[in-house]
């Protein structure tokens, strides 16, 4: 009965999405207050009903109701409770419920927290959100119903893919979807602005917090996925340029460009047309990622295997959403004035350079991801585009971007003094050179590229500290006065400083783990010893270590440095009888400076096992830097300008001028 109530809730949510997609838009064109107000009511109601449907699906998993086909295919009575719950979104149908739930959450948030928005603009924004929800709810109800019953009900389920039975991956999809779907709000703001034919600083100020929230969530979601792949898949790496990894990375790149472009619109009312286009492209890339994951065109550990009919439906949604928005953009964009002029050396130019490099990088990743699919569709040879292509094309685009980051953040608006900025950054430049020299002299695994990577990392971190020192007048005014400035520094300024410093830490982690990784693949039996990166590793053999729903063989390794034991690691080969699949659990010992990463492989002979040993320097800095970047975004998000006294959309040129002042 609860499953039927969940299905009914989805149907009612579909009806409310239809109301939300139509009546507020009509009301905005007629300036009818009642019709415009239906957008908020429908958005909140849609969120309530989808929440009920999601709760019904979770209930089915928790109580192991195997009469529901979705539960039968993705759960089992012996599965731990956490993975019963996460199994609800570890499949195609369940993940769609989560998708539309988050979409409805953002729509309800606009309805509740957008009280200062002009009624017509708010109505149009909610209507666009309703159109998106209408499409996905129709897709779910027509092709992907999560509440289909089985008669007779099976006695037990088939279980969940074992590699998805992990705490990290339990949180990865919700966080990723908050980013994916969060960009729908910025897209809706952009569509509403295009319909009204007006984009100004107030629009950018309203849109930027939603963009920030989505960007932060997507940043954390990608980091969680990378961390999971690192410790769960047992291959010793953290990023493989997998097509589904790229599907989440592309909207992150475009969203990063959008964030920086929105700053220019807010501060200088220029790059309006480009910012609107970026809002469209960012959400379009999120939709493209949905298509790639659910269409069946990709084979990936992350992808949902589905039938082609679903892929065609999503492709139709993709064509309508992207084609319709670009058509509206082509109609309205020429009427949007460019705003204030700026010199080639200015903060606007630096942010434009940032946008061009990020857009080019996005296009590069898109080409490498889709080219094999296009070639296959044209009956060409089957090829794969892997890390060598992306490393050779993506990395060179990032070098000038990273060099420009500290410079651009310190340039003045409209017309900057490049010579003065470079002089103020001399200490950061000296730190970068010193780090490069020290790495070349004292770290034997660094080459020219690695030394450059560490120099860029030092440049970014030192540049951020330099920016902070300049903002508070350190060594230029009294120390007490500098502390006062530090305490009064706005959240947006902290956001820039913290995020750019986190980027530097991330670059250092990527450089060290890529250039300095040590790897040994060999066979060992109990009592054997080997060396890796100065550590002595003793293999103590294999024992049985069964879990609640799996059988396991556990290998034990003891790592010593200079005769002193520093880590005792356990790596497991697990087999899940219900699912009939094996997994590998790596043994990892993490410090701030390195990871020891040991993996037990297959048995090569009686008592003889293949093992893979890795020493990964500074690898934890990758996720630490990413978290710091996200915290930088959060600092900017809580800036009081986005919460208190935000002006209404400009009603006239005079009002707009007052808002800019």
How does this structure look, described?
By secondary structure, this protein is an alpha+beta fold. Among the domains are: 1-165, Up-down Bundle (Four Helix Bundle (Hemerythrin (Met), subunit A)), CATH 1.20.120; 518-617. It is 63% helix and 12% strand. The chain contains 20 helices and 9 strands. A 5-stranded antiparallel β-sheet has the order 2-3-4-5-6, with no helix packed on it. Strands 1-9-8-7 form a 4-stranded antiparallel β-sheet, covered by helices on one side. A hairpin with a 4-residue loop joins strand 5 (564-576) and strand 6. It is globular, with a radius of gyration of 27 Å.
Total DSSP E strands: 9
Order of helices and strands: HHHHHHHHHHHHHHHHHHEEEEEEEEEHH
**Mean of the pLDDT scores?**
90
Q: Strand sequence of the main sheet, in spatial order?
A: 2-3-4-5-6
Number of helices: 20
Distance between the first and last residues' Cα: 59 Å
How large, in whole angstroms, is the Cα Rg? 27 Å
Helical residues, percent: 55-70%
Instruction: Provide the β-strand percentage band.
Output: 5-15%
Largest sheet: 5 strands, antiparallel
Global morphology? globular
The CATH architecture name of the domain at 1-165 reads Up-down Bundle
The CATH topology of the domain at 1-165 turns out to be: Four Helix Bundle (Hemerythrin (Met), subunit A)
Given helix and strand content, the structural type is alpha+beta
CATH class of the domain at 1-165: Mainly Alpha
Low-confidence stretches are: 644-661
């Amino acid at each position: 009965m609860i499953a039927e109530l969940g299905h009914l809730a989805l149907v009612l949510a579909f009806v409310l999405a239809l109301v939300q997609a139509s009546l507020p838009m009509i009301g905005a064109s007629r300036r009818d207050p009642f019709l415009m107000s239906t957008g908020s009511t429908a958005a909140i109601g849609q969120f309530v009903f989808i929440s009920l449907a999601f709760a019904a699906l979770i209930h089915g998993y928790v109580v192991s109701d195997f009469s529901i086909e979705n539960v039968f295919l993705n759960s089992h009575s012996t599965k731990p409770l956490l993975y019963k719950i996460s199994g609800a979104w570890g499949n195609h149908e369940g993940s769609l419920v989560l998708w539309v739930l988050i979409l409805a959450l953002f729509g309800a948030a606009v309805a509740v927290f957008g009280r200062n928005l002009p009624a017509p603009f708010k109505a149009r924004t909610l209507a666009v959100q309703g159109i998106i929800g209408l499409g996905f709810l129709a897709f779910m109800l027509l092709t992907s119903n999560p509440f289909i019953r089985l008669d007779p009900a099976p006695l037990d389920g088939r279980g969940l893919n074992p590699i998805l039975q992990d705490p990290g991956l339990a949180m990865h999809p919700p966080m990723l979807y908050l980013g994916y779907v969060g960009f729908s709000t910025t897209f809706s703001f952009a569509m509403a602005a295009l319909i009204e034919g007006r984009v100004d600083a107030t629009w950018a100020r309203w849109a930027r917090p939603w963009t920030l929230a989505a960007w932060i969530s997507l940043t954390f979601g990608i980091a969680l996925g990378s961390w999971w792949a690192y410790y769960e898949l047992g291959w010793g790496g953290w990023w493989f340029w997998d097509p589904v990894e790229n599907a989440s990375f592309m909207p992150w790149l475009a969203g990063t460009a959008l964030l920086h472009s929105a700053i220019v619109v807010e501060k200088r009312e220029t790059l309006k047309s480009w910012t609107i286009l970026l809002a469209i492209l960012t959400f379009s890339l999120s939709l493209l990622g949905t298509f790639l994951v659910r269409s069946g065109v990709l084979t990936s550990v992350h992808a949902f295997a589905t039938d082609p009919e679903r892929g065609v439906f999503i492709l139709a949604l993709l064509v309508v959403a992207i084609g319709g928005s670009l058509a509206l953009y082509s109609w309205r964009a020429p009427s949007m004035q460019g705003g204030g002029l700026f010199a080639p050396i200015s903060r606007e130019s630096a942010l434009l350079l940032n946008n061009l490099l990020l857009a080019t990088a996005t296009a590069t990743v898109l080409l490498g991801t889709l080219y094999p699919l296009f070639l296959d569709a044209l009956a060409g040879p089957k090829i794969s585009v892997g890390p060598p292509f992306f490393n050779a094309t993506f990395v060179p685009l990032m070098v000038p971007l990273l060099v420009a980051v500290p410079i651009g953040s310190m340039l003045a608006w409209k017309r900057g003094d490049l010579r003065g900025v470079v002089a103020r950054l001399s200490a950061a430049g000296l730190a970068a050179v010193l780090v490069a020299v020290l790495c070349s002299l004292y770290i034997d695994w660094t080459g020219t590229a690695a030394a450059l990577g560490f120099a860029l990392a030092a440049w970014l971190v030192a540049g951020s500290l330099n920016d902070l020192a300049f903002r508070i007048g350190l060594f230029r005014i009294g120390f007490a006065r500098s502390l006062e400035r530090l305490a009064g520094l706005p959240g947006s300024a902290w956001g820039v400083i913290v995020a750019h410093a986190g980027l530097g830490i991330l670059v250092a982690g990527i450089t060290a783990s890529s250039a300095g990784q040590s790897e040994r693949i060999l066979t060992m039996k109990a009592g054997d010893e080997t060396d890796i990166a100065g550590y002595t590793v003793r293999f103590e053999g294999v024992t049985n270590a069964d879990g609640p729903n799996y059988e396991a063989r556990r290998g034990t390794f003891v790592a010593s440095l200079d005769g002193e034991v520093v880590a005792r690691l356990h790596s497991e080969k697990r087999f899940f009888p219900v699912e009939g699949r094996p997994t590998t659990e790596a043994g990892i010992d993490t410090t701030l400076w390195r990871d020891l990463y040991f993996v037990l492989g297959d048995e090569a002979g009686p008592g003889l096992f293949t093992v893979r040993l890795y020493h990964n320097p500074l690898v934890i800095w990758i996720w630490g830097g990413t978290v710091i970047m996200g915290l930088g975004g959060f600092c900017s998000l809580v800036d009081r300008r986005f919460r208190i006294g935000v002006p209404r959309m400009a009603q006239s040129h005079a009002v707009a001028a007052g808002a800019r002042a």
